[in-house]
Model the fold of this input.
Amino acid sequence: MRQKERAALILRRLEELYPETPVPLDNSNPFTLLVAVLLSAQCTDRKVNEVTPALFAAGPDPVAMAALPEGTILAHIRQLGLARTKARHVKRLAELLLERHGGEVPRSFAALEALPGVGHKTASVVMAQAFAVPAFPVDTHIHRLAQRWGLSSGVSVTRTETDLKRLFPRQAWNKLHLQIIFYGREYCTARGCDGTGCPLCRELYPRRRSPVVWCKA
Done:
């Protein structure tokens, strides 16, 4: 099966499995989404969702968050990895939104990536999920599955993003990146599938193993 054919099959199967793609991180606006994505680095979405309700009650917008002492922010997120660094970034991010952007989350990759703690992946998530700008955020699940499915060499996250954007239609990017994440968590985990175990891997590479049964895990 050629690469383009694999991509088309993947798109069909994921749409069948995940017609709806709710944002995994709880948020109510672009600011809370930005902070939640920043906090999710080296941490599960579930853990982030456990701590953000109290954090966002205390700092629901840039004005309120910037006014919080760094120690207060840290107290709310202490359970997360890299908590001290993240607390510092969240406070400074809120301050810079006020200083540079009138208290609004900017709608550009460059402006977002200039904020503390915000890399390209975080900026891509915000642009895609908050502002519906086509983007293809590549997390560890997507990077791993793109290699496993023969869609990218996996030399780097940047290369994976470029390859996926080339293979899939632009209008599918924002939904597809979430569908791949959902599939990677449910069916094709790092330890649970070696490229021959899950239904999609078996369908993509039928000679590796036999019969594909499509059902929820």
